[in-house]
Amino acid sequence: MGTDNQPPPRNPEPTAIAAKVLAALRGLRFGSVEITVHEGRVVQIERKEKLRLSIPCPDGNGSGDPEP
């Protein structure tokens, strides 16, 4: 069996994929965008967003932890 020295297949529309990555990043303040590649092709774009909550605590110290 011979070896195949050809490069992996390219994505058919790199600009369309770049647009989807940019769309996943748009408006993201805290989180991550993960790009999964199989055999040189982008097969998945995953966006994980974290929401930071600022909840005032009843004792007023602002940390959310009880005072010592």
Keywords:
single chain; 68 residues; alpha+beta; two-stranded antiparallel sheet; 1 helix; 18% helix; DUF2292 domain-containing protein
Mean pLDDT: 81
Structural class: alpha+beta
Ends distance: 72 Å
* Radius of gyration, whole Å: 22 Å
Tell me the strand order in the biggest sheet: 1-2
Tell me the strand percentage band: 25-35%
Helix content: 10-25%
Q: Count the strands?
A: 2
Order of helices and strands: HEE
Biggest sheet statistics: 2 strands, antiparallel
Shape: elongated
Question: What does the model show?
Answer:
The chain has 68 residues and is α+β, with helices and mostly antiparallel strands. It has a domain at 14-49. It has one helix at residues 14-25; strands spanning 31-38, 41-49. The chain has a two-stranded antiparallel sheet with strand order 1-2. A hairpin with a 2-residue loop joins strand 1 and strand 2. It is elongated and about 70 Å long. It starts with 13 loop residues before the first helix and ends in a 19-residue tail after the last strand.
